[in-house]
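Take just one protein record:
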Amino acid sequence: MAWKHAFNAVFFENKLLLDQIATMIKKFNFLIFILLITSCQERSVSDKLHYQPVLDSLQISFQEKLDTGEGMLQASREYRLQTDSLLSVVYSQILDVQDLNLDSLKLTQKKFLLKKQTKEDSIWKEVDAVFSETGITPQLERMAAYEFIGDMNLKRASQLNRILIKNGGYRVTGKQLKQK
């Protein structure tokens, strides 16, 4: 008979232990559920970023590459291409904003692109003139040309970003930031 009492005591203790484990698992699942909901809400709030940090980091990164003194021409070329791409992204993002006068915005963008193309053509004419005279394309002038156009793109992207912020149309996800 003693073994029955011992068996019941062990079984009862195991049952209590199993009940406690089941309760802990339920609490753990509830905690995971709460964390999941909270993280989703935090993500939707953090999605409301704007492009200025990206623009600033691009400019800082470019300056850091120039400060090394190595690959300055390549860094300038990359800067020009990156700012051009970012300008396109910001412009396409702004086209999704409902409350804007898109005709005016499109006209302003066309004027900017025309001005940029005219300036770029005149800069490259000067570089080509130096090449015609010397037979060598000077890296400094090429670097300055890329940098000047990159700065124009960056300035325009900042202007468009301010319009996005003003009109509440900014939506950049963390994934999009990492891709840039």
